Every structure is written in C-alpha cells, then in structure tokens.
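W.,

You were right to be curious about this one. When I first looked at the sequence I had no strong expectations either way, so I just let the prediction run and decided to look at it fresh. Below is the sequence, 40 residues in total, followed by the output.
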Amino acid sequence: MPKPKEDYSFWSKYKRFASTEILMYLVMIIGIALGIIFLS
C-alpha cells in the first residue's frame, strides 16, 4: 500500500511550507492593519 507513504510525504512537505505560509498571512494582516490606520 504506497498510499500512506504518499500521505506522509505530503504532510512533511506541508509542515515545511506551513511556517512560511503563516509568515505570509501575518505580513498580509499587518499590511492591511497599517493601511486602515493610515487611511483613517
């Protein structure tokens, strides 16, 4: 059954990119907040 192995590799790959994805979301949220503060 090679399917569980593929899922495991997919999850390890996702964990590797999860931190950068969270950082991108944080930067987007901070940018939107700064935009609202500057516009108001």
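Here's what jumped out at me. The chain is about 90% helix and 0% strand. And, maybe more interesting for your project: The first helix runs from residue 3 to 39.

Coffee later to discuss?

I.
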